[in-house]
## 1
Amino acid sequence: MRSYDNNLMLIDMLNAKIPVLGFAAASGTGKTTLLTRLIPLLKQNGLRIGLIKHSHHDFEIDRPGKDSFRLREAGASPVMLVSRYRRAMITEFTSEKEPRLDDQLKQFDQSELDLILVEGFRAEKFPKIELHRPALEKPLLYPNDPDIIAIAADVKLETPAYLVQLDLNQPEMIAAFIQNHVMKSHD
């Protein structure tokens, strides 16, 4: 088992100022679907939630032909789009290596948040809930990832006693686990 500080964060996650909790699973398990159901429940409990999602694909958040796209294509980086409704920052990476979560946390404004949820970055060392659907015939992650603190599955699994089992189809149960274990350990 990896060593955590009293805030349930790995000591080497230097840029985490608040609790960080990941959701790890094989593609197609329903990470985003669960998060879209879980976030409103956590917000109802008064938590201010940030999210970092790792993608293995190239992506565009602005569209060709838009001024911001043209300016970024011309070489500006970063480019910040701002309206009275939202802000987006687009920064081009010059390195071909995968981004590290701790580096992204350095850029993430945590000052008005209580919790950062992370989708992806599953090879990194920070607390995670594994999502598992045996019907997908994908291997469980927890045997090779000591940072998994709970597993949410759609069936009962045989797991070690230290691993909290949650029902993947009960986001209320997962929200309660986060409130009672992740957030309480940070108090």
Note: DSSP finds four helices and eight strands in the chain.
## 2
Amino acid sequence: MKISNRKGRWLRWQRGQALAEYWVTIPAGIILMLAAAGIVQFITNGLTQTVEGLEYTGDVECAMQGTADEKAGPLFTDLNGHTFEVVMDVYDEETNTTQVAYKVTSGGEHDISNWVLGLPPGVAKHIVWTSEPYLDHTTTPDPNSGLYGIKFETGFGGGGEDDAVQPEEKPGKKKSAAPLALTGYSFRQDMDSRLIIIHLAGYFEWDITDLGVKAGTDVFLGTITAPARQVDPPKKGDC
């Protein structure tokens, strides 16, 4: 029993000495662990608040939508060397009007004599004016292409009948109060490439539509995006 007591005291003395030796290092380790945990928690909370704020305001979603092309159908079409490209789609809230522009380039073997954009009747009836005269084929097909829409007959190459056409007002329609300004562009600068402007009353959703061009005796058909239907304009704050 005496031997056992001595042994027990010796073991307790050893443990006490070890605790005394390492006691100084324990608080430092705890402090480091607590500090690391605090830093991690601070970063986690900051990221959580940032994500929650973006989800609430919709900033990330709006930014992503702003970079995406929301129009259905191609913005650019090549019909045997003749190209058509959407270069402008601007809605004016104050006048509730939309200005659309197509850049048309005659680059095929024969110059473009006329072309048809397949606007539906529900869109064509909202045309306020266009930069070039057009024929309404929304209810009767164009005899050349067989397409329905609006037909532009001002030819390309050699200047045509009027190579500096001013916006023409349709009978019974009022001209937009918002003048069109195309800085640095002249209808005379390139006889084989020019802008065709369509000024519409209202706001429109876009969709794929028919496109046809007649050059010489050839007719080429394709598709492009265009105003397809009038809808309510987006509310302020919407993406």
Note: The radius of gyration is 36 Å.
